């Protein structure tokens, strides 16, 4: 069953056409990956789904409802959570306070259970619970950013480059958690990654974005085996 459908979506920044008519489908319970070079429009796609910037054409349908005109706080209320590139945690607040903020939209009765779940997922956050988030390492901040999104009990999790700038061991942990969230909680995930190898291995389906257009799509493992994809995105991967 389709959870999210983009049809002919165009997004401009002034004269720059970042998305030029994109069709993407995310089904309930899937991990879908978007890969593509720098500037292909991947981040713009995630941000457009969330409502900032707005698409100039096309339709975005989520749970059967057209959401083109909804601002980010409304799409968040519908259960769409984004973990943006660069994480954007609140550096002066503690780990715990960041998690509390993430839970603002969720039913307070789930708070303790969800907190325990996140701290189990990333035990290092338990040790860092009362530390200011700005003092965490890059990997810990990414774990916190993902946990903060989870505290809102999203039905669609959008992850923008979660492995960016992290050490290989941490990257592994992040990807394991993504797979686990999907397997054990049935979480639907749209994942943008430069790290095409890990992301395609994990994905049920994937899209390749190039200059604002989808140029290829298929099963994650199918694209992983595709010679064109390998040559363009997996050199040294
Ligand atoms: P990256 O991996 O570098 O983040 P990306 O695939 O996510 O790349 P986008 O960041 O979506 O690509 O950028 C798509 C195009 O839109 C690029 O040409 C970029 O320069 C342009 N762009 C992105 N954000 C803005 C902005 N705020 N104002 C103007 N142009 C922008």
Structural overview:
The chain is an alpha/beta fold. It folds into two domains: 158 residues, Rossmann fold (3-Layer(aba) Sandwich); 65 residues, no CATH class. It is 38% helix and 27% strand. A six-stranded mixed beta sheet has the order 6-7-8-3-9-10, with helices on both faces. The chain has a four-stranded antiparallel beta sheet with strand order 2-1-4-5, covered by helices on one side. Helix 3 packs parallel to helix 6. The longest helix has 18 residues. The mean pLDDT is 94. The site of adenosine-5'-triphosphate has 11 residues, from strand 2 and helix 1. Keywords: Amino-acid transport, ATP-binding, Nucleotide-binding, Transport. It comes from Aerophototrophica crusticola. GO terms for molecular function: ATP binding; ATP hydrolysis activity; branched-chain amino acid transmembrane transporter activity. Belongs to the ABC transporter superfamily.
Structure summary:
This protein is an alpha/beta fold. Helix content is 38%, strand content 27%.
Give the tags.
single chain; 237 residues; alpha/beta; Rossmann fold; 6-stranded mixed beta sheet; 4-stranded antiparallel beta sheet; 10 helices; 38% helix; 27% strand; globular; binds adenosine-5'-triphosphate; transport; AAA+_ATPase
Spell out the blueprint of helices and strands.
Layout: E1 2-13, E2 16-27, E3 31-35, H1 42-50, E4 57-62, E5 65-66, H2 72-77, E6 80-83, H3 95-102, H4 111-121, H5 123-127, H6 138-150, E7 156-160, H7 168-185, E8 188-192, H8 196-202, E9 205-210, E10 213-219, H9 220-225, H10 227-233
Helix pairs in contact: 3-6
The chain binds adenosine-5'-triphosphate (ATP).
């Amino acid at each position: 069953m389709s959870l999210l459908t983009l049809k002919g979506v165009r997004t401009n920044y002034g004269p720059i056409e970042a998305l030029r008519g994109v069709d993407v489908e995310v089904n309930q319970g899937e991990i879908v990956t978007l890969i593509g070079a720098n500037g292909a429009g991947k981040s713009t796609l995630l941000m457009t789904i969330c409502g900032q910037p707005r698409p100039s054409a096309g339709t975005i349908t989520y749970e059967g409802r057209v959401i083109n005109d909804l601002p980010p706080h409304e799409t968040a209320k519908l259960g769409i959570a984004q973990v943006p590139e660069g994480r954007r945690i609140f550096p002066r607040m503690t780990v715990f306070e960041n998690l509390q903020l993430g839970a603002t939209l969720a039913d307070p009765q789930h708070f303790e259970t969800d907190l325990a779940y996140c701290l189990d997922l990333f035990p290092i956050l338990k040790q860092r619970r009362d530390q200011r988030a700005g003092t965490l390492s890059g990997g810990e901040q990414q774990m916190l950013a993902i946990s903060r999104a989870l505290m809102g009990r999203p039905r669609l999790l959008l992850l923008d480059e979660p492995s960016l700038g992290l050490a290989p061991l941490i990257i592994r942990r992040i990807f394991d958690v993504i797979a686990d969230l999907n397997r054990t909680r049935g979480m639907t995930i749209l994942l943008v990654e430069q790290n095409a190898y890990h992301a395609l291995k994990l994905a049920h389906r994937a899209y390749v974005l190039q200059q604002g257009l989808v140029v290829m799509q298929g099963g994650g493992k199918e694209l992983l085996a595709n010679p064109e994809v390998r040559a363009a995105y997996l050199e040294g991967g």
